[in-house]
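Before the break, one more example. Copy the sequence into your notebook; we will annotate it together after we see the structure.
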Amino acid sequence: MLNENAIFSNALLKLTLNNIVKLEKNQFNLVFNNIEGRVAYFLLQLAKDFSRNIGEELLVEHPLTQQDMASFIGLTRQTINQALVIFKEKGYIYIPERKKILIRNIKQLETIAMY
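Here is what the structure looks like once it is written out:
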């Protein structure tokens, strides 16, 4: 089937390669980034999948609890919370309610995340 349909074959190859690149970036983030970098990277990944523009800011409406985030990143819920508080105090994000994060300074998060 793959030989018969070059378009499908190329699309499948591209999807596979994109997934490999994403996994490598995630591994790099987990190994080499500090706590704030890991959380910033995770927020940027959430923004790719769950955000919409509000002016120059991004509203991330996501399905995750802080415990879910902690499990994905390999941190405790308390550590995630502390990093989010630091980002709020610095004006990088605002959390209007549970499961919503307004990213106010995406460039700064990208710098922190080595994105």
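Strands lie at 51-54, 57-61, 93-97, 100-103. Residues 4 and 44 are 38 Å apart (CA to CA). Try to locate both features in your own notes.
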